[in-house]
Amino acid sequence: MLEIRNITKTFFPGTVNEVRALRGVTLTIEDGCFAAIIGTNGSGKSTLLNAVAGTFLPDEGSVFIDGTDITHWPEHKRARLVGRVFQNPFAGTAAEMTIAENIAIAMKRGKSRGVGQALSRSVRDEIADKVRALNMGLENRLDNPIGTLSGGQRQALTLLMATWVRPKLLLLDEHTAALDPKSAAQVAALTSEIIARDKLTVLMVTHSMQQAVQMPGRVVMMHAGNVVEDYAGERKKGLRIADLMRAFDRVRRRDLFDAAVANIVVPQYA
Amino acid sequence: MNITQKESNGILEMGLSGRLDAASSDFFYNAVAANIREGRQKIRVDASGLEYLSSAGLRSLLRSHRELSGVGGSFAIIRASDFVVKTLSMSGFDSLLALETDAEKQAEESPAEEGGAKVRHEEGIRLELYELDADASMEAQLCGGWKSWTAPEEGMTARVPLGSDCVALGIGAPGEDYASVREGLGDFLAAAGCAAWMPPGDSGTPDYLVQEGRFTPEVIALSAIRGSGEFSHLLRFQPEKEGAVLSLHALAAKTLAATKRTSTAFTALVEVGGLVGVSTIRSPGLIADGKAAEFPSVRDWLSFTGERVHEGALALLVGFVDASGSAANAAFLPEPPSTKGVRLHVHAAVFPFHPLANGIINMAESVAQLFSGAEPLALLHLVEDDRPTVGLGCSTFVRGAVWISGVNFTKGTNS
Ligand SMILES: Nc1ncnc2c1ncn2[C@@H]1O[C@H](COP(=O)(O)OP(=O)(O)OP(=O)(O)O)[C@@H](O)[C@H]1O
Ligand SMILES: [Mg+2]
């Protein structure tokens, strides 16, 4: 279970460039819950994922995984618990290394790092089996550098690697956004499949309303560094794209409703 | 495909040349729809230049015919070449071909009757004012004892029946008693037995009830104005210059001028230029203290459109105007910042656009047709935003029909 308690993060504090990226976010994600995070650009979605992954320390607040306070754990230590896939297909894998080598590294997550051993026959077979299951024909290219693959293929492999050893928490940051529509749909389907099979606990940032409505069991909307909507349970089941569009609309309207507007409209509302 | 248009004696002739097929049928239909919207509702299609007519093309002709029949207009194909006649009759649609009798021709050739309307042209807008019944007037009850933004109590509420004999607006909700509606109160309007209200909360879309048989919609209201009686005038307006619109304040002034009264009630069906308004997003029944009206907490109770919205949609307006200066009505009729002395309370229910017939049309029939055709998209309490430079001003309307009556306000009893 992931618990985010009252996290704040301000970039460039005290300067003209000050950005209050997270303004006290509290969010609990139960075990086995697949939650999507949506929100306007700059609302703090990636910053929240970064705070959980340990890319930086939050200014205030704390992060717990399974009751353990990991707020001050360095990023590499958290990587044992947290699998991560970014928007950029070129992040997260080493381009000049082969598919098999990249996967071999992923297989060692959470274990002490043995370096550069030749892959045993049985390990190669295990890799080939899982890669074959992607149905992308990549099992015959295990010794090709991963940099020679298309974005969709790379993202599918990155996802496979991030979940090879079951992570306590999987973080996906717009991981299909840079792909063409067909590859995006493929990777999204693979995502749902792996999450359902391994009953993973997931935070997925997406700008696709369709993904937000179809894939997860819960949808959290962020705006200006806050959580402004949380669709879970029955409320999520009935959720349609139009509801999300309206929620975005509400949020935008709220922004436009400033003190000057209040002065004018409140007396006219009788 | 090319379309030429010429209008004479109130009949629009659309000359088609080229192919009317899957590639061009939408183009043709949209041209027809634009004409209907702009009030050109007697349309003849000159088919002499038509080289080809596919089934998609045929469908667009039928659709045009159906749309025009719906607004009491007419549609026919003239000067059809042999293959067009053949295509139409083979598919059983030869009724679209004009077989104008001399009588019809004559009737249509005489200039369109104004039907006794006083016609005026103002700032690019053509206004027709019809007198329906010079003696008609309305009684309007001011119902409910709630003072805006205060914590309401049960004794302040009023039970307001919304049958076909009245027009009404206010804050309320349908329900058994106050306890059952306390958390669900929102803005409502009603006309001709059709009531729409905005439940607070997520859905963001209005709900509605329509009078049927012995069922009459009814709301429990914190505050409402309910007018009953007949309308004395009908105002029709449409732009003559591109971009000309009638503002809400101008419309209110026209209702006063038409009736020569200091207080009026009106119901309108209008094409929206842009709406500026607010709506309840949390039931005022839940207000516990005076803080609700303060910024920023007011944003939890009220949503402001923030921009001009719903351009091109059809809105049903119910409004009351009071220039009498009477203090007794003030709680029910707020004063917009720029119209000193003219108080105004207007609610708008927004629907997908559909065209209205020209001339005198019946309010009850038109409203019933609206509610049977589509669901309301939004419901707003209209306001004026007079912030310097960035202000949105008041709502504007492109064309439509406004039924108007003088009104006497009386204090209603609470339930
Ligand atoms: N490392 C950083 N240094 C400075 N400012 C940052 C940094 N990371 C994020 N920000 C700022 O913090 C705010 C939130 O950014 P964040 O990337 O979390 O938004 P987001 O919701 O992921 O947006 P998008 O949908 O565009 O990805 C933005 O104003 C951004 O410019
Ligand atoms: Mg981001």
Labels describing this entry:
heterodimer, A: 270 residues, alpha/beta, Rossmann fold, 6-stranded mixed sheet, 4-stranded antiparallel sheet, 10 strands, B: 415 residues, alpha+beta, 18-stranded mixed sheet, 7 helices, elongated, binds adenosine-5'-triphosphate, binds magnesium ion
N-to-C CA distance of chain A: 48 Å
- Please identify the oligomeric state: heterodimer
Which stretches of chain B are low in confidence, meaning pLDDT under 50 for 5 or more residues running? none
Mean pLDDT of chain B: 91
Q: How many helical stretches of chain A?
A: 10
The main sheet of chain B comes to: 18 strands, mixed
Head-to-tail CA distance between termini of chain B: 65 Å
How big a fraction of the residues of chain A is strand? 15-25%
SSE diagram, text form:
The complex is a heterodimer of chains A (270) and B (415).
Chain A: E1 2-11, E2 19-29, E3 34-39, H1 45-53, E4 60-65, E5 68-69, H2 75-78, E6 82-85, H3 99-107, H4 121-132, H5 151-162, E7 169-173, H6 181-198, E8 202-205, H7 209-214, E9 218-223, E10 226-231, H8 233-237, H9 241-256, H10 259-265
Parallel strand pairs in A: 3-8, 3-9, 6-7, 7-8
Antiparallel strand pairs in A: 1-2, 1-4, 4-5, 9-10
Helix pairs in contact in A: 3-5, 5-6
Chain B: E1 2-8, E2 11-20, H1 25-37, E3 42-53, H2 55-70, E4 74-78, H3 82-90, H4 102-109, E5 118-122, E6 125-131, E7 138-143, E8 158-161, E9 166-173, H5 178-181, E10 186-191, E11 194-197, E12 207-210, E13 218-229, E14 233-239, E15 246-247, H6 248-259, E16 263-274, E17 277-280, E18 302-304, E19 314-322, E20 343-351, H7 363-373, E21 378-382, E22 396-411
Helix pairs in contact in B: 1-2
Adenosine-5'-triphosphate is lined by residues 11, 19, 21, 39, 41-47 of chain A.
